[in-house]
Structures are given as structure tokens and as C-alpha cells.
Specification:
Elements: E1 7-9, E2 13-15, E3 20-23, E4 34-36, E5 40-42, E6 47-49, E7 53-54, E8 59-60, E9 65-66, E10 71-72, E11 77-78, E12 83-84, E13 89-90, E14 95-96, E15 101-102, E16 107-108, E17 113-114, E18 119-120, E19 136-137, E20 142-143, E21 148-149, E22 154-155, E23 160-161, E24 166-167, E25 175-178, E26 183-187, H1 188-199
Parallel strand pairs: 1-4, 2-5, 3-6, 4-7, 6-9, 7-10, 8-11, 9-12, 10-13, 11-14, 12-15, 13-16, 14-17, 16-19, 17-20, 18-21, 19-22, 20-23, 21-24, 23-25
Antiparallel strand pairs: 25-26
Length: 200
């Protein structure tokens, strides 16, 4: 099903008949058109709003939502029942697993990974529409299951956020953080060495 929005959908693509592509936003935005690159796979009950630019090889699970005014690179995978709210910038080869909420004005760089249940906040003083600032997740960073990222934090390049961590301040590049509030508990490379030693 499609709305009256202007849709530029490159071939080839596989859009389930029960997906909504080009949902018009209730917000007033400058451009209600939608561009999606080639090889998109959009599964049933996904909703993609007009007003975004999405690269090639998009793949959604069932019930995924991508709101308006997003800039998204190639090879985004977004699993079942996850939402990317409006005004986000997302790079290429990003994986967003099941049940994730990406708040408005979040930046996610190339090759980042969000595990199931990750929650991203953008408002230091709810509800304050003038102070919204999402986190920045740098290239190759990974965020573990059920972690929470508070507004404005920076997850450094290649960093790893542990399961159920609550990130209240910036995470240095290449570091592992865990706990509530999240604290540095080691280096990603040291963790990788221990895993390699265990299995080889």
C-alpha cells in the first residue's frame, strides 16, 4: 500500500503488499518525497515515511518503522519491531536488531551494531522540544542487548557496550563498558584476544 507521497524506488526491489512505503508525516516538513535505492527488501507491516533518503540494499524485518527526514546509507538491516525516529543520520552497513528504538537526531556511523532491545534517549529534560540531542555511535561500535544510551553521549569507534549497561557519559574508542552507570572495564582488543585464545 502506498500514500500520495512522491516515491523514488529503484529497481529491483521486493516490497510486501502489507508494507506502507511513503507514509505522509503528520509533521510539516519541506520535502515529502522518499528515495530508496536498489535491492530493497521491505517486509510485511513495515512503515517507511516520506521525507527520507535511503541507500541500496535496505532490509526490514516485520513491523519496522523508519520515520521522516532521515539520511541512511547502503545496506541498512533493521529487524522486527524496531523504530528509527525522524532526523537521524545513519551510515552504511549498519545493523539494528529486534525491538530497538533510535531516538530523533541520533547519528550512527558505518558498521555499527545495535543488539535487541537497545533504547536510545535524546531529551535531557523531558519533555523539552528545544534540547533534543541523540547520541553519536561511531564507526564499528557495538551496543549490547537491552543497553540504554542517554542523550548526547558519544560511543567511540570500535567500542563495546555491555548488556543492560546505562551509558551516561562518553565511551572512549576501543573500550568495553558495562554496568549502571556504565564504566570502562577493559579494552575490546584484550577481550578479542581472550576469545581467540579460548577457541583456537
Amino acid at each position: 500500500m502506498r500514500t500520495e507521497a512522491r516515491i523514488i524506488l529503484a529497481d529491483p526491489h521486493d516490497i510486501d503488499p502489507q508494507a506502507v512505503v511513503g507514509q505522509v508525516s503528520g509533521r510539516t516538513i519541506a520535502d515529502q518525497s522518499l528515495q530508496i535505492g536498489a535491492h530493497a527488501v521491505v517486509r510485511a507491516f513495515s512503515v517507511i515515511y516520506a521525507g527520507s533518503r535511503i541507500g541500496s540494499h535496505l532490509e526490514t524485518g516485520h513491523g519496522a518503522v523508519i520515520r521522516e527526514e532521515n539520511q541512511i546509507g547502503d545496506h541498512l538491516s533493521i529487524w522486527n519491531n524496531s523504530t528509527i525516529d525522524y532526523g537521524c543520520v545513519i551510515g552504511s552497513n549498519v545493523k539494528i536488531h529486534t525491538g530497538v528504538y533510535v531516538a530523533q537526531f541520533t547519528t550512527i556511523e558505518d558498521e555499527a551494531f545495535l543488539a535487541p532491545g537497545v533504547m536510545i534517549a535524546n531529551d535531557r529534560h523531558p519533555v523539552c522540544p528545544d534540547c533534543l540531542q541523540g547520541p553519536t555511535i561511531k564507526r564499528g561500535a557495538r551496543v549490547g542487548i537491552n543497553a540504554t544510551l542517554l542523550p548526547g553521549v558519544v560511543i567511540g569507534e570500535g567500542a563495546l557496550v555491555g548488556a543492560a549497561a546505562v551509558v551516561t557519559r562518553d565511551v572512549p574508542p576501543g573500550m568495553v563498558v558495562a554496568g549502571n552507570p556504565a564504566r570502562v572495564v577493559g579494552e575490546v582488543e584484550a577481550l578479542n584476544r581472550r576469545i581467540r585464545d579460548k577457541f583456537h
